[in-house]
Specification:
three-stranded antiparallel beta sheet, single chain, Arc Repressor Mutant, subunit A, alpha+beta, 11 strands
Length: 433
Amino acid sequence: MNNTFPLTLDSFGNKESNDHFNKAVGTIHIKVQSGSLGLVQRKLINAFHFIAKDDPSRETHYIKRQDLFAMIGYHSNNIIDFKESARKLTNINVEWDYLREDTERVWGVSNIISEIEFVTNGIVAFSFPRRIREFMATQEHRGLVNMQIQKKFTMSYALSLYENTTIYRVAGSTPKFSVRELKTLLVVDDEENTTYKLFKHFNNKIIAPAVKEINEVSDIMIEAIFYKNGRNVEQISFNVAVKPQSFLDFDETPSISSLHERLVSFGCNPKVALDIIDKHDSEYILGNLDYVENQILSPSGKEIRNPMGFFMDALAKDYRTKEPEIVRKAREKREIESKKKIEEEKRIFEKNNRLAEENRLKIETAKCRFNALPEDEKVYLQESFLVETMESNAIVAKKFKESGLKSTMVSAVFYSFLSNLWLEKEQIERSKF
């Protein structure tokens, strides 16, 4: 590897505005012949592909170590462990373009990375094998990988399945994989871990958790479809859909405040936004808002002179784009969750309002009763209040000494103290009878 470093290094920081790349399918459909791919290794491989994407034919690439750490979300200070993960990459032997069966396929194996070099000045240099570079430079069939999203993955199997399904985000479904092919793509060794020889364990421990994580953290949604021969699952495919913008904007079902904020930022009058939220389900609102915003931003669309009017028309007529089945199921689930969440928020809001009103009346009643007392009783109660607050609330006690009941904060605490004191005495009196 040439140790003469270029004047300008590859830098993730310079590419944050374009944080995705199209990964050649030949480098996704790989069969690991020796070694294993853990989560850090997978993220490193994608980071190296991203760095090399603008000049894939170049033999050696360079990047600052801290930029590389940022790309893969590596927050540990353990450089030794990181170097060990990187070192293992050079020992991983893969068969590339594993699933391609046409006459153009040339069988071959190579290391997944040729060289990695850590230099004392914080530079990391790396090289891809010749055939991998050729795939990166010339292969047309590719899968879109988002570098910001890959940082969120916590499972190696999930990240691998994400790469193998994102290829088909436009087609809407993957081909059928045999169980053996899927295990190979995910690097599941059922000879080493015989638990996975049984499909139910492979599904429960690998497929289902991977699908769940992809649907939670990525920009696509997938659904596993199983094909049986008798009682045995022999093939698996995945329905794939691009996640709607509204799913990306909110990690969970949107709250009233977040939905209101988005409507106002679009241009709604705050009162109109509240009225819209009151009349429609959140998913219905978001679906139509997505449609309107996409129409406004579309370079081929007609000019929309009155976006707010267009949006109100969309709400009235439901302009939502017809959704893939997988998205429809997820959206219906979110609608149910959203209704429950909004009802709970309303219940808490009404409860808090009721308690606030009860407290206001309690304080007002105590104030009137206190004002009607003789001066000696007033003095006694204030002295009792001071003794109490010196033990329980030093700040209120200090303010009371300085300005008596003139402070709004002190007076509220004082009349609440009186109300509770008198209520306690009344309960004691009643208990005597």
